[in-house]
């Protein structure tokens, strides 16, 4: 049942938003429907598929498993912060180059998860890349082209320091 | 070929190039527009109370305090909609078939767990779901038979009393004297094969938004469908609206694989409610609803037997199949789509005279089965290719040599299979050879045998198959189905600015057709890629279309685009000939520039368009033509697409987990439009096939409850389950389709289950085990090993 609403202040892609929401509102719904940032997708609502992955204070998080109010004071990054149609970000460009997307529905979640793994995971072998990607489901590509894109990005990045 | 033709051939072509996709930027930037991304003003939300009973009479529905939930607007059951809609009837000309009517909400009875019963409309989805909690449905449970072997019996409880039987599909294919063939056979092998029930699991759940325009009394449905034209046509009847006041749009669609390729009651529902409530109405399925109410796949029980001569020639095949079609026959494909294809494709790409294949499709209280990538052929190829390897083993022949001996040879095309399918011409033998060469088959065998000596359970398996793609008007995609699946239309228009709009009825949902169809047009028309806007997925674009499914859009859409582009190009050149004072035969267009071989004069397409449309009197009125054409292509027969898959797997002797070590696909898909996209289709389809072979299974327990209710239960492959796929493209003799394209989107799911089943059987051959049920999970291997323990051995040992 609806309860008392709570005022929330959260930074999304560097812009601070203040909103009043029901405490039960999911972070994914807040991003999509309250802020209109529909690049974050919802594929399962139970934390398995990874389509809703965003960055929460720099680390990947499932926005369907969090309440919006839990993000109070946090810095959220979504796919919209990575680039735009006329100026794609580096990961987005690598996905295009390697044909690492087909229907595109899971793609924003992959891009955000990869942002995290490029910062924190060694990604030196294909096995490591596949293991790191295995928290996200893509039903179209069979993953090979995504692995190719990440391999290139990891090579560009070089070893973690 | 003349010198001039040579110069044309030497020009860079886009067909065949790895062109980056034009749909990518919006999808990558997070600004694609899927149905749930739309939020028109005044939109309300629907949540559905679904049946928790497999078969029960609805005695009463009590909404309780549901209206006390803030934001709740209305609550409906079937009785409220009787006067609003007519049911969709999935008719067929097939004899002995019963077409179960499709209503938006259950009427009188429920027939599977997950069937929609009550719809709540509210200002938010949260409020609508709150209200569902207050609703009580009083059911009288009815008897049911949940397994097809029980439902097919004469005394089984009936799901649809009006049908008088649960067996709503019967079909038999017969050629020659199969029983005599078996009597004369040196070797026979048989099996009882079962590809368990699967579901498509597109990452975007089914999503619908209907908008009513009170000014025009017109309805627009935005739907995550891959058949918007078919949906428009059927809803026109259900809602009694002409096509001018009913538009069905498939915007960006997050995958389908067949699961979004049929009409759903929820589509009728949101349209009826938008008209009734005069506001936009949205329904977004959640994943539980997807797993319990989106069309499901396969679920046949195939008893099949193969007869072979001493020399290893196939002479006969007998099969008796019971298909579990679920609770309803779906629109438009009917319950015959999946079931009948199993027996029509069972003889495969092989030369064989004698055949009898019988199918019975039976109703059970489960979600309806429908199209799923590969349709019928994943099951039929699994059964046939297991039999092939079993026979080769029994004869002591290498399975590759055995296939080589029996695959239809190049000089035998067109070949009519024992079930009546005609293989036009395709590289059956070359695909087998290509897969073996790529995998270095002789060395792979040595590698396997060495690993086995070290105690590892390693196996190699192959699968060869052919499918019919780009099917034209001669046969319906689903047997006896009255809608036209044999044509597609392309409408190409150059506007006054020189920009080109190419409109299609097909509906791309991940295949990249905005790019590949533009590539085809660039080559035919001689324009620039960036000047083309491909429109698709909208029933308003062309008079009729049945959509994107059955590996048809590159063949039919590409063919129609080719025809329309040729007509438009001729018009451009005629106008340019007048404007440039040149002989039209001397003109050609490339890169959007018209050139003459007898002059230095050139004109851009933009200049020609401006002269034709905007500069009054520049071209005399009797010679002026709009730079537009609409052409419809019908490939009539369709064309074979063939492939051989080869897999090497390892079974862990302790956990019984299966790891795919190597995977090779050799396929002949005719002329390749975009190799990058073709590779992506093959890899994605193989991954789904590996999922079907090792992981995926919809389970209904004896109470009729769906056990796989989340993606933690229904396992789809993740990156660590899938190896790199070696792909060999064999572009043999091109088919007689316009453009020379074959359809190839489905093939991976057809070959992979069979190849994996054969490889796992080979890995377990020292234990005498044969895989006859997929998915072959660790639990199934464990149970097979348990069953193998001979009690007599136990006593003596």
TrEMBL record, chain A:
Keyword Nucleotidyltransferase: no
2Fe-2S ferredoxin-type domain segment(s): 6-82
SUPFAM superfamilies in the record: 2Fe-2S ferredoxin-like (SSF54292), CO dehydrogenase ISP C-domain like (SSF47741)
Keywords of this entry: 2Fe-2S, Iron, Iron-sulfur, Metal-binding, Oxidoreductase
Metal-binding keyword on record: yes
InterPro entries, per database record: 2Fe-2S-bd, 2Fe-2S-bd_dom_sf, 2Fe-2S_ferredoxin-like_sf, 2Fe-2S_ferredoxin-type, 2Fe2S_fd_BS, Beta-grasp_dom_sf, Diverse_Oxidoreductases
Protein name from the UniProt record: (2Fe-2S)-binding protein
Organism: Shinella yambaruensis
Automatic annotation (TrEMBL), chain B:
Pfam family, one: MoCoBD_1
Family matches, as SUPFAM superfamilies: CO dehydrogenase molybdoprotein N-domain-like, Molybdenum cofactor-binding domain
Highest taxon listed in the record's lineage: Bacteria
UniProt keyword list: Molybdenum, Oxidoreductase
Domain Aldehyde oxidase/xanthine dehydrogenase a/b hammerhead residue range list: 29-143
UniProt cross-references to SMART domains, sorted A to Z: Ald_Xan_dh_C
PANTHER family, A to Z: ALDEHYDE OXIDASE 1-RELATED, XANTHINE DEHYDROGENASE
Name listed for the protein in its UniProt record: Dehydrogenase
Source species: Shinella yambaruensis
